């Protein structure tokens, strides 16, 4: 168990970062690409700047969704922002590792707080866009926060940080979001069993069900694992 200095509130030097587990479909190719980009990056570029880029890009995506309410081609701006978010969010840690400038506690904390604020900006933008009804946007946000919370708690208690579930990770989700935005450029509506509905409502409902189901399954699995690893005396 990690002990904390009661006077300074700081963790000791023997802090060990959690094992990173990433088995998504694009993980191997993405890792090679990020390592190449990190080695080619100019010396003035820092991990903190990339983290800030990722956050600003996600906020920009939310703003582009708001603009899409009256200018449909603002959805192209969403796609560009998603690409910059991938660059900032994915390259910051790789750059730190390549340069041997890792700050495990700082990086983990800041990266994931940025993800949470970015998700709020994105879902609020979607709600204001009129492309999805507010209950769907809020449901997606709650499901994402629930799944994120489970991931962070599992990282702390199990010492293993799972960046993906099965073949799906953050990059795969971004690709699905890009495909969805391209579909929105054609039409914001979809017809299911003869009923016309907003495409984002359909996709958002499916995404919410998947995220909540995943959170429940992971909670059951990790609870059982911890129960076995910490039996009663």
Describe this structure in words.
Helix content is 68%, strand content 6%. It is globular. The chain is mostly helical. Helix 2 runs antiparallel to helix 3 (74-98) and helix 2 runs parallel beside helix 4. The chain contains seven helices and four strands. The protein has a single domain (26-34, 43-229), classed as Four Helix Bundle (Hemerythrin (Met), subunit A) (Up-down Bundle).
Query: What are the low-pLDDT stretches, counting only 5+ consecutive residues below 50?
Result: none
In one word, what is the shape?
A: globular
For the record, the CATH architecture stands as: Up-down Bundle
Portion in helices: 55-70%
Largest sheet: 2 strands, parallel
The CATH class label is Mainly Alpha
**What is the total tally of β strands?**
4
Number of helical runs? 7
Query: What fold name stands as the CATH topology?
Result: Four Helix Bundle (Hemerythrin (Met), subunit A)
Mean pLDDT level: 91
User: Compute the gyration radius: what is it?
Assistant: 19 Å
* Cα distance spanning the termini: 18 Å
Short description:
With 233 residues, the chain is mainly alpha-helical. 68% of the residues lie in helices and 6% in strands. The radius of gyration is 19 Å and the shape is globular.
How is this fold's topology laid out?
Layout: E1 19-21, H1 27-40, H2 47-67, H3 74-98, H4 104-129, H5 134-158, E2 160-162, H6 170-186, E3 189-192, E4 195-198, H7 199-229
Helix pairs in contact: 1-3, 2-3, 2-4, 3-6, 4-5, 5-7
């Amino acid at each position: 168990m990690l002990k904390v200095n009661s006077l300074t509130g700081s963790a000791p030097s023997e802090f060990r970062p959690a094992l990173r587990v990433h088995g998504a479909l694009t993980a191997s190719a993405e890792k090679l690409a990020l390592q190449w980009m990190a080695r080619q990056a100019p010396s003035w570029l820092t991990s903190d700047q990339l983290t800030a880029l990722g956050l600003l890009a996600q906020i920009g995506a939310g703003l582009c969704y708001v603009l899409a309410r009256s200018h449909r081609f603002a959805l192209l701006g969403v796609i560009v922002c998603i690409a910059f978010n991938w660059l900032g969010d994915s390259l910051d840690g790789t750059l730190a590792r390549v340069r041997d400038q890792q700050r495990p506690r700082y990086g983990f904390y800041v990266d994931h707080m940025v993800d949470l604020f970015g998700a709020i900006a994105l879902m609020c933008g979607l709600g204001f866009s009129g492309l999805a009804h507010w209950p769907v946007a809020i449901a997606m946000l709650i499901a994402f926060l629930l799944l994120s919370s489970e991931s962070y708690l599992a990282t702390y208690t199990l010492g293993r940080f799972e960046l993906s579930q099965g073949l799906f990770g953050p990059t795969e989700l971004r690709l699905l979001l890009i495909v969805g935005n391209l579909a929105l450029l054609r039409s914001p509506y979809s017809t299911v069993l003869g009923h016309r509905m907003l495409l984002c409502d359909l996709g958002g409902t499916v995404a919410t069900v998947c995220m909540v189901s995943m959170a429940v399954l992971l909670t059951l699995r990790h609870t059982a694992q911890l129960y076995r690893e910490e039996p009663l005396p």
